[in-house]
Amino acid sequence: QVQLVESGGGLVQSGGSLRLSCAASGSIFSIYSVAWYRQGPGKQRELVAYITGGGNINYADSVQGRFTISRDNAKKAMYLQMNNLKPEDTAVYYCNAGPSGQGRPYAYWGQGTQVTVSS
Fold first, then answer.
1. Nearest to 48 by CA among 87, 116, 96
2. Which of 30, 34, 37, 88 could cross-link 73 (Cys pair, CB 3.0–4.6 Å)?
3. What gap in Å lies between CA 36 and CA 112, rounded to an integer?
C-alpha cells in the first residue's frame, strides 16, 4: 500500500509560478511510474504529465513548455513545477503512482491540492 500526500497548491496571479510536491510512503516508490492529473471546475480529470519507472517523461500539450515533472526517489517524492500559469490551469491537482504495467491512471492517488490562477 502506498500513501500519497500533496502540498504546494494555492492562489497565484496569471503568469506566476507554483511548485507542487507529493510525498509517498512505501519502500518500492522508486520503481513506480508517477503522474500528475488535474480536474478543473465542471471538467473531467485529465492527465498533466507522467514519468515512467524507466524515466520516460510526457506532458499534455496544454502544459508542454510551462510545466516540469520530476521525482526524487531517495526522498520518495515527486514534483510539478508550474510556470507561466494561466486561468485555465485552475484545478484540483492530484498525484498518482503505481506499477506501470496496469496502465494509467496508476493504482494510488493523493487527496488533491487546489490551484487557483487569477486573471
1. 96
2. 30
3. 10
20-70: pLDDT as tens digits: 999 999 778 888 999 999 999 999 999 999 999 889 999 999 999 999 999
Please provide the DSSP assignment of 7-36 as one string.
Answer: E--EEEETT--EEEEEEE-STTGGGSEEEE
Q: Which of 17, 30, 19, 20 is nearest to 72 (CA)?
A: 30
* High-pLDDT (> 70) share of the chain, %: 100
7 contacts: CB under 8 Å, gap ≥ 6: 20, 21, 22, 23, 113
Check residue 42 and give left, alpha or beta (phi > 0: left; psi -120 to 50: alpha).
left
